[in-house]
From TrEMBL:
Gene Ontology biological-process annotations: glycerophospholipid biosynthetic process
Gene3D superfamilies in the cross-refs: HAD superfamily/HAD-like
GO cellular component, one term: mitochondrion
Pfam family, one: Hydrolase_like
Protein name per UniProt: HAD-superfamily subfamily IIA hydrolase
Family matches, as SUPFAM superfamilies: HAD-like (SSF56784)
Organism: Oidiodendron maius (strain Zn)
PANTHER family: CDP-DIACYLGLYCEROL--GLYCEROL-3-PHOSPHATE 3-PHOSPHATIDYLTRANSFERASE-RELATED (PTHR14269), SUPERFAMILY HYDROLASE, PUTATIVE (AFU_ORTHOLOGUE AFUA_2G02580)-RELATED (PTHR14269:SF57)
Length: 389
């Protein structure tokens, strides 16, 4: 077949008989175990992304990682991977929390409310939340520094907290709840560093009246109420950004992730309430909320990338989700039901991440390939585009 276009030499070239068509497909790449491992570059990743970039094939990076603002992360990633990555094609675990600043018809915006943010180094996640537009952000360390008795074993972390805490916007005065510090929502943005303090303060809030620190709801344990009275007294909503129980680090065995903290808090909750239901919202892969959000970001990015030419062009027909984790990347892509009818195809890499060739994946992908470069080659072939070295 005669090539209809040829691109500059250097790096892989790309020729296609359908080059005049707009790609009706796009990619979503997980980062850890697909593009990077312990912040080192995985072989073939820069080539794969460069090829897509050069050919205007849209892609986003979709990760359960976080802890830094998107602007800082895309700057690092662009440098490492050698292609421009911007906030327009990057979604990390806590990015969808942005939507809660202004809220929606269904959910009241939290912009002017007081929110508790936990997780991450120092108060980096507070700063991320502020950049999203939340105006009143408290971290557990703020409360500890003013009220050290709230968790008696924390002197050991005083130096750590000194560097990143701020005065509280209101005093804690349970005898006068109307003027006391009241938390309207709790966000676990990233893996907590101090599980003990964070567990205690989150539990306090879940047991409080109206989210006022230091109060205890009289409804707790009342058998005449739904859920035996637990979480029935206007306590703050609880959000987690990432359900991963384990993640791959430079240690040879997987380490506990934010999902480990969630399971630990659940255990404390169960023991405290005699197994009442714990209401909370969990986002991140594999949950549909994150895939729906990512698809919106991808469609917007695609429209910008393809510009005027997209007018009258078909909708995004297919997304290839390339990941290393069957329980998040693959499960999420398999189970997600796009409101736009976009098909998500799951592609599992077997040599660079959590999943290793030979294991039986708990959630089966549409295809297993060696690495990200092989994934892109496979997908392009599926779509009838040719790769020429
Ligand atoms: Mg991964």
């Amino acid at each position: 077949m005669a090539p209809s276009a040829e691109y500059r030499s250097g790096g892989p070239r790309y020729l296609s008989s359908r080059i005049d068509d707009l790609p009706g497909f796009a990619f979503a790449f997980d980062i850890d175990g697909v593009l990077l491992r312990s912040s080192g570059i995985i072989a073939g990743a820069p080539e794969a992304l460069a090829l897509l970039h050069r050919n205007n094939i849209p892609f986003i990076l979709l990760t359960n990682g976080g802890g830094k603002h998107e602007s800082a992360r895309v700057h690092e990633l662009s440098k490492k991977l050698g292609v421009p990555i911007t906030e327009e094609n990057f979604v990390q675990s806590h990015t969808p929390f942005k939507e809660l600043v202004e809220g929606s018809e269904a959910i009241e915006g939290l912009k002017d409310k007081t929110v508790l943010v936990t997780g991450g180094d120092g108060d980096k996640c507070r700063k991320v939340a502020e950049m999203y537009g939340f105006k009143n952000v408290v971290i557990p360390g703020d409360i500890l520094m003013e009220y050290p008795t709230i968790w008696p074993f924390n002197q050991i972390f005083s130096d750590y907290y000194h560097k990143s805490t701020r005065p509280l916007p209101r005093q804690v005065d349970p005898t006068n709840p109307s003027t006391s510090l009241k938390i309207d929502a709790i966000f676990v943005f990233n893996d907590p560093r101090d599980w003990a303090l964070d567990s205690q303060i989150i539990l306090d809030l879940l047991l409080s009246k109206d989210g006022v620190i230091g109060t205890y709801s009289e409804k707790n344990g009342d058998p005449t109420l739904p859920n035996n009275g637990w979480q029935q007294d206007n306590q703050p909503a609880l959000f987690f950004s990432n359900p991963d129980l384990f993640w791959a680090t430079s240690y040879h065995l997987p380490r506990l992730g934010q999902g480990g903290f969630q399971a630990s808090l659940q255990g404390v909750w169960d023991a405290t309430t005699n197994n009442a239901t714990l209401s909370r919202t969990v986002i991140g892969k594999p949950f549909a909320h994150t895939y729906r959000y990512a698809e919106r970001v991808l469609n917007k990015h695609r429209a910008q990338l393809l510009g005027e030419s997209i007018r009258g062009a078909s909708e995004l027909r297919r997304v290839f989700m390339v990941g290393d984790n069957p329980e998040s990347d693959i499960r999420g892509a398999n189970e997600y039901d796009s409101p736009n009818g976009t098909e998500w195809t799951s592609v599992l890499v077997s040599k660079t991440g959590v999943y290793r060739a030979g294991m039986e994946p708990k959630y089966k992908p549409q295809v297993i390939v060696d690495d990200v470069l092989a994934a892109v080659k496979w997908a392009l072939k599926e779509e009838g585009w040719d790769w020429v070295e």
